[in-house]
Amino acid sequence: MKAAAIAALSAAARAGLQVEVVAETGSTNADLLARAATLAGPVLLVAEHQTAGRGRAGRSWLSSPEGSLTFSLAWKFDGGPQALAGLPLAVGVALAETLSSLGQQVQLKWPNDLLKDGDKLAGILIETQSAPGGGVWAVIGVGLNLLMPDEMEARIGRHAAAVPWLARMERDALVAALLDGLATALDEFAARGFAAFSARWNLRHAWQGETVVLLDGGQVVHEGLAAGVDDAGRLLLDTAQGRIPVLAGDVSLRVKA
Ligand code: ATP
Fold it and tell me: CA-CA distance, 210 to 233, in Å (whole number)?
């Protein structure tokens, strides 16, 4: 991949967003977070090979140079971190809509995963840091499987999805398309919040109407029918006690076996 080629194909880059490509790094999120205090504007950092990709709560995200896209986007928002509730879900909508425009239909799993045929296709990890002059930098990390060889699936330890059709697309063009979809969505999120995305999220909700359990530290804390998300990005669960809104902390959602 070439930064100049991605930038030439991206409207966001033409509007001033900086694009960088590195051959290998541990974590693109860690790299951009370390630079957040010195960033002058939004930056996309793409790693051809990410060796220590992170998931939520210290979990890891595996990738391969041939079969994965790994990148992070640093984006500054006004207000404090609380202004960013719902951002991972809005990012999911943006990625899903771009993939749809490229002919790949994917579904969303609350709070932060893209699924294809029921298996995880992409993960989103957002980390934040206060900006020196006010506001907050969000570093939005995305790992997307293009290919999923058996050997890698075995290392992950559960089924995972891929989009081999897109693996054949020119990488720079694919990254530029995902970047522009994200940039448009982030502007919209800054202006209107998650309310601009809730209906779009619900349209692609993987587990609508399914019986799900919510796990915290491996323990079931809630069980109910998944009823989509509200305008704040909370998951609505229809339980025996009635409908409850769930905030995305470090909880995991599973379809009930
Ligand atoms: P869940 O909500 O299912 O508990 P999570 O939100 O905890 O998932 P993340 O932190 O987003 O998961 O991602 C890390 C997890 O994703 C890992 O623990 C692993 O199971 C799985 N994983 C790691 N690499 C990949 C990959 N390339 N494709 C699909 N899944 C992966």
Answer: 18
Of residues 83 and 12, the one with the higher pLDDT is: 12
Distance 55 CA to ligand 1 centre (A): 6
Q: DSSP 3-state assignment of 79? A: coil
Q: Whose CA is nearest to atom 2 of ligand 1?
A: 252
Least confident of 102-106, 120-124, 191-195, 245-249: 245-249
Q: Ligand 1: distance of its center to the CA of 61 in Å?
A: 6
State how far the Cα of 230 lies from the Cα of 70, in Å rounded to an integer. Answer: 29
Atom of ligand 1 nearest to the CA of 145: 27
Q: List, by residue number, the catalytic residues.
A: 56, 120, 254
- pLDDT number for residue 171: 97
Dihedral sign for Cα 82, 85, 88, 94, please.
negative
Angle formed by the axes of helices 87-101 and 171-192, nearest 10°: 140
Q: Give me the domains of the chain, ranges plus CATH numbers.
A: 3-203 (3.30.930.10), 211-253 (2.30.30.100)
Residue 83 pLDDT > 90: no
| Cβ(213) – ligand 1 distance below 6 Å | no
| Nearest ligand 1 atom to alpha carbon 160 | 29
Question: How far, in Å, is the centroid of ligand 1 from the Cα of 95?
Answer: 17
**Pocket test residue of 61, 112, 215, 220 for ligand 1, highest count of atoms within 8 A of CB:** 61
pTM of the shown model? 0.96
Judged against a pLDDT cut of 90, whether residue 222 lies above it is answered with yes
